[in-house]
Design brief:
This protein is of the alpha/beta class. It is built from 13 helices and eight strands. The strands form two sheets. The protein has a six-stranded parallel sheet with strand order 1-8-5-4-2-3, with helices on both faces. Strands 6-7 form a two-stranded antiparallel ribbon. Helix 9 packs across helix 13 and helix 12 (354-361) crosses helix 13 (376-384). 57% of the residues are buried.
Length: 387
């Protein structure tokens, strides 16, 4: 067995820890470019100290999932302000924007040199500028991943800008910042966190370190996801989900993802569907699709190990009631009903759209770590279960 593990240079976790953001950022850089979301007033406890300090040189608001144009505009502003550190305070879209700006701030070549799928996928010429990531949702784990997912409306896809140096220099995870997250956003981000613990656990690149992270995160998500959806002010549940999200980010960054994320990217790119909600609604049907594909692969030898992995997932999700993978699928199906995730048809997706979406999914980086090789037909059939 051979594997490696890499993550953010420093992780600070705990209620109220974001109050130290200005002081900790000042240890990394002198002029900060601060990326925020559409409602920055919600996070004055973080942003006001940055504004009062001599550190913050420019602010940039991200009000939708980031596109190439968003990131290029932000990078121009960061260069004009001569910033040497980027701070992201927000959800996954904000953190991905911050990481992409940090990457481009030190690299002036065409962005298509570095993009996957629609670009040349070359490594960054220079190391990314330091980035401080402060999540305000519990889902993407972007504060400890080495890529940024960006939309290209012209190509109708979402693609990654990826490099080891894009791992944030500092991640500050403060569960208190998630207390006012509305139920729908809590459900969407929470389901994303859940999927990002299951996919790395069954991944073809899973290793003992990521396995341990996934087991711990799954246990916390299983007991707290519904609870935090129903009672957003439950600090214990919010802490569980912040930890689950962080552990999922650590796991996926080192063990990869799978068919659910492979489908979610083209679905988001073509239909503008929210990433976490799409991942969540795909979860039960794509778990089933992977198992069916393994069973059909009579000579591949994947069905036994995969059955065992999904059996352990089921055991954790059902609080020890069953090791049958079908019980895990049933648990996931009930969850998406309980937290009212929209079906794929809500976004205008039809049967006719599934084959091209599946074909695009097979080309993504996420599919490379799927535990079993899926055909386009198998992938489309799995997505059909989420229509």
């Amino acid at each position: 067995m051979k594997f490696e593990f890499a993550t953010a240079g420093r992780i600070v976790f705990g209620a109220g820890s974001s109050a130290d953001a200005a002081r900790l950022t000042a240890e990394i850089g002198q002029r900060a470019f601060v990326v925020t979301g559409g409602q920055p007033e919600r996070f004055r406890s973080v942003l006001d100290p940055l504004r009062r300090s001599a550190l913050a040189s420019a602010f940039f608001r991200v009000t939708a999932e980031p596109t190439l144009a968003t990131v290029l505009a932000a990078t121009r502003e960061a260069r004009t302000a001569q910033c040497d550190v980027v701070v992201g305070v927000g959800g996954g879209s904000v953190l991905d924007t911050a990481k992409a700006v940090a990457a481009l701030l030190t690299n002036s070549e065409d962005i298509f040199d570095y993009l996957e799928v629609i670009g040349r996928a070359r490594p960054l010429t220079n190391l990314a500028a330091p980035c401080v990531a402060i999540p305000t949702t519990s889902g993407t784990g972007s504060e400890v991943t080495r890529n940024a997912v960006l939309g290209s409306p012209e190509h109708r896809v979402k693609v990654s800008l990826r490099h080891p140096s894009m791992l944030p220099r500092l991640a500050i995870v403060d569960p208190d910042l998630t207390l006012e997250l509305p139920p729908a956003a809590t459900a969407s981000s929470g389901c994303d966190a859940l999927v990002q613990l299951i996919e790395p656990f069954v991944s073809s690149r899973a290793n003992p370190i990521t396995d341990g992270l996934c087991r711990e995160g799954l246990d916390r998500a299983a007991r707290s996801l519904r609870r935090v959806y129903e009672r957003g002010d439950d600090r214990s549940a919010r802490t569980d989900m912040s930890i689950a999200s962080l552990l999922g980010g650590l796991a996926l960054s080192n063990a990869g993802l799978g068919s659910i994320h492979a489908l979610a990217n083209p679905i988001g790119g073509r239909f503008g569907a929210p990433h976490g909600a799409v991942c969540g609604v795909l979860l039960p049907s794509m778990m089933a699709a992977n198992l069916r594909a393994a069973e059909a692969d009579l000579f591949g030898g994947s069905v036994g190990p995969l059955y065992e992995r999904y059996g352990e997932v089921a055991h954790i999700l059902t609080a020890g009631a069953s090791r049958d993978p079908e019980a895990g699928i049933a648990w996931a199906r009930q969850l998406i009903s309980d937290v009212k995730l929209p079906r794929l048809r809500t976004y205008g997706i039809t049967e006719h759209d599934l084959p091209p979406l599946a074909a695009d999914a097979l080309k993504t980086n996420s599919m490379k770590a799927n535990p079993v090789k899926l055909t386009a037909e198998q992938c489309a059939e799995g997505a059909r279960g989420a229509l």
